[in-house]
Design a protein that fits this description.
The structure is a homodimer of 243-residue chains. Chain A is of the alpha/beta class and 243 residues long. Chain A contains seven helices and 13 strands. In chain A, helix 3 crosses helix 4. At the A-B interface, helix 1, helix 3, helix 4, helix 5 and strand 6 of A face helix 1, helix 3, helix 4, helix 5 and strand 6 of B.
C-alpha cells in the first residue's frame, strides 16, 4: 500500500538532512511541496515527479499529497526545517481525519532552533520558547503575550518569521515588547540562510536588534540572563562548571 | 589542524542522525561522551577510539575532548538529541574561552521536541516552550515560573527530564502547577525511548498525566488550547484550513 511521508528536510542543504529523510526521498515516486523547498531537493533526486503549489496554498498542497498517495503512489511532502514544528504534518492529519488511508509517516528534521543555534554558538542550553512573529494565523496580541511571558520567566527565545514582505516591522515591534522586561544589553543573534548560499550570522544587543535587516530567511535568538559572548559566539551556560 | 566536533546524534538510532553527523563520526579519530551515548554509536563506527566519563562529570568530559583535540586528534563529542539544546556545545565553548584552538564545529541533531513530536503526532505546529524538569542545575522555583508563564500564554510545551532516579515526582509537581491554569482535559502525550528499542507513546489528558510512569528516557508534550486527538494522534492545528 502506498505511503505518504511528511519529511522535514532541515535548513536546506543535503548534509543537514537525516539519513531517514534521505531514504524516504530516494524511495518515493512523487515529491510535493512549496516550490522553494522542492527546488532545493530537486538536484538530489532528479528522477522523481515534482508537484508544487504557491506559498499560501497549504490546504491545497496537503490535499494533493493525500490524493496522490490514494492513487497508489509513494509520496513525500517536503517541509523546510522540521515536519512538525510549524510544519505540514498537522494539516495532513487534519485532512485525513479519522480515515486510516493513506498511511502517514512523519519524518522529523532539523528545525531552525537547532540548525541556527549551532551556527551562532550554543544559545539554547537552558529552557527556551519558540515563537513565530507571523500574524497571518495568530492574533498579534497573542504573540505579544507570549513574548512577555517568555521574557518575564527568563526563557531564552527563538523567533521564527521575524519579517516578511507584507510585514517588515514585526521584529521592531517584538523588540519594543521585550525591551519593557529585558535589559538593552541582553545578547541576541541573527542567523540568515542557514545551510544555504549566503549563510551568515551576527550577534548584537537587544537594543541593536531593531536596526538589523531581517527577512523571512532569518531566525532570531534572544538570550536569557546568563547568556554571554564567548569567543564571539552566543553562549548560554548550563551551569555544569559548578557540577 | 585537528578539529573538535560537537555532534548531536538525535534520539539514538542511526537513521535519525543527519548525514553531516554521520560524516563527522566517520572522519574522526576519537569519540567521547557519556557512556550510554557512546554505546549507541559504537556499533556504527567500530574502529574508533572511545573515551567515556560517568554521568555527572560533564566538565571533565568536555575538558578531555578539548585536550585530545589539542594533541592533534580529530575528536567527536557526542550528545544525545541536539548538541545545543541542553547539549555540551556551551560547556565546550566556555572551557575553550577566548582561545582559538582547537577549532570547534557544532553539528546539530534532532532534539526530542522534533523526534518525539513526530512520534506522537504533530503537537508543535504553533508556538511552544521547551522546559526541563531537572532541578539539578536550575532552582525549582524558576521551573515553576516558566511552566506557569507558558500555560498562561497558551504555549504548547515539551517537558524534558520529566523524572530521574533521584527525583521521581517532578512530573506530578509540574502537573499540579499546570492544573492551576489549564483544564484537566487538556491533551498531553508521553514519548518513550524515541528511535530506540522499546519505543512507545501514548496520549492522555492533563488530569491523567500524573498517573503515567515516566523515566529519564521519556519526553512529555502538553497541548495548547487548540490541540486535539485526530486518528489517535496528538495534533495542534495551525489554522491553515481557513487559509
Amino acid at each position: 500500500m502506498a505511503k505518504l511521508y511528511v519529511v522535514g528536510i532541515g535548513p536546506g542543504n543535503y548534509e543537514n538532512m537525516t539519513i531517514r529523510a534521505d531514504r524516504a526521498l530516494q524511495s518515493c515516486d512523487t515529491i510535493i511541496g512549496y516550490h522553494v523547498y522542492v527546488d532545493l531537493v530537486k538536484p538530489w533526486y532528479p528522477d522523481k515527479e515534482f508537484l508544487t503549489t504557491p506559498m499560501t496554498r497549504e490546504t491545497q498542497r496537503c490535499q494533493m499529497a493525500l490524493d496522490e498517495a490514494m492513487k497508489g503512489k509513494n509520496v513525500a511532502m517536503v517541509c523546510s526545517g522540521d515536519s512538525v514544528v510549524y510544519g505540514m504534518a498537522a494539516l495532513i492529519y487534519e485532512l485525513r481525519g479519522e480515515n486510516i488511508q493513506p498511511e502517514i509517516e512523519v519524518i522529523p528534521g532539523l528545525t531552525a532552533a537547532c540548525s541556527g543555534g549551532a551556527l551562532v554558538g550554543a544559545p539554547l542550553t537552558h529552557d527556551f520558547a519558540v515563537i513565530s512573529l507571523s500574524d497571518r494565523l495568530t492574533p498579534w496580541e497573542k504573540i505579544e503575550a507570549r513574548l512577555t511571558a517568555a521574557a518575564q520567566s527568563d526563557l531564552s527565545m527563538v523567533l521564527y518569521n521575524p519579517a516578511s514582505h507584507g510585514r517588515p516591522d514585526h521584529l521592531r515591534h517584538a523588540c519594543e515588547i521585550l525591551g519593557r522586561v529585558l535589559p538593552g544589553d541582553r545578547l541576541c543573534a541573527v542567523a540568515r540562510n542557514i545551510g544555504r548560499e549566503g549563510e551568515s550570522w551576527l550577534t548584537c544587543t537587544l537594543e541593536q536588534l531593531p536596526e538589523q535587516e531581517v527577512d523571512m530567511f532569518c531566525t532570531v535568538f534572544i538570550g536569557n540572563a546568563m547568556t554571554q559572548s564567548i569567543g564571539g559566539k552566543m553562549v548560554t551556560p548550563r551551569g555544569y562548571r559548578h557540577g
